[in-house]
Amino acid sequence: MKDRIARALINEPKILVLDERESHLDFRNQIRLLKLIQGVAAEQSIACILSTHYPNHALRIAQRCFLLGEGDYITGETNRVMTDANIPKFFGVLSHSVEFQYQGETVTSFSFLDEV
After folding, report:
1. Domain co-membership, 43 together with 81
2. Residue 82 CB-density burial (10 A; 0-12 exposed, 13-18 middle, 19+ buried)
3. What is the pTM of this model?
């Protein structure tokens, strides 16, 4: 995982595009990868475009978000796009989000309840 990101960074890109890099990883490695991406992007002032099927991952590290659905899309600040109202529309499942405090930071997390 790290070696592919390192190879991408060798040429000092201005934009890093990652397509579902966290897929097929266990929870621990998903978190490690997200922290790595977030840290590298901040340290090197790189814009990062991350494609994911995990709304919680977008909420964790993305400043802006783009949801694409059948004939529709929405874009904006992640906390305004990733909502209980938009999850059913774009993912086809009902959700419930919960906010809590962790290490002085407000964290939002989704639970997915059922198909729409």
Report:
1. no
2. buried
3. 0.80
